[in-house]
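Comment thread on ticket #2218

A.B. wrote:
> Attaching the input chain for the structure job we discussed in standup.
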Amino acid sequence: MEIKAIHDAAVSELINDDDSDSLVAAHRLLLEVLFAYGAAYSAITERLLADADAAELARAEGAEVAEQSRLAVLAGVSHELGNPLMIVKVNVASIRKFLEERGNWPEDLNQREADVSFAVERMMILREELLAASRNEQRELDVVPQPLHHTLRRVVRWGRLSADEKAIQITEDCAADLPYVLADEGALQSIFTNLLSNAVRYTGRGGSIEVRAWHEPPNLLIAFTDSGIGISEEDQLRIYERFFRTEEGKNAVVFGIGLGLAITRDLVSSMGGTITVESQLGSGSTFTVALPAADLSTVLD
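C.D. wrote:
> Ran it. Output below, let me know if you need it in another format.
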């Protein structure tokens, strides 16, 4: 309801019926608010989960009870995310429709609207994954041929929003003519955003991240290389466990619940792929995802 209140205030205070410039300005303002809200939502979500998780675990005794407490927290927080996300999604759609009907949709708002929509879409998918994780399940996937470069470039653009705040340079090497990949679009988005957000999170100010995709038949490979804190050989054996976080990771980033890599591995595996890591403590990490390439004739048919 907070987003709706901002929208109503903008419309009532800035817009006159005959003033199209004020109309555009007010909706541009709202899009900026929605964009910031959506882009920051994953961090807010993790903080909520981490706080609730800590409270539950303080009351839990034993590994099995602690596991059940974590799952209960996931379910509760996931349900809470539903309403605010839907408000953002509906507001963005109504803004576009409102302005397009009046011929007042400026071209420069297209990318902003796309950024907001992507952030909201990302959060909706995350909510589904958290709900599935709370039930020890995995959401149903629709594995079909997908253009890899389109999703990867959207994710990189999204990742740069957080990277710029830390002066981290992200470089991308993904040719548009790569074969299609056999994948679920939402799962592909989750895999890439999880790996890129981890790279940004655990890379220090002024560091660098390289995102690279190439064809190595029968697979497409996507690698995320960062100059961050790295992972010890011992911890590399556990990083895909649910709720596991390395001590170095906890020191670098206080909040977090240790689910991202577990979800990523499960999604990759469900689509017939593999994920590997090469890392040294203090010397950065490279996570490489291999997914089956689609038969081009299948796509053309």
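A.B. wrote:
> Thanks. Noting for the ticket: The radius of gyration is 21 Å.
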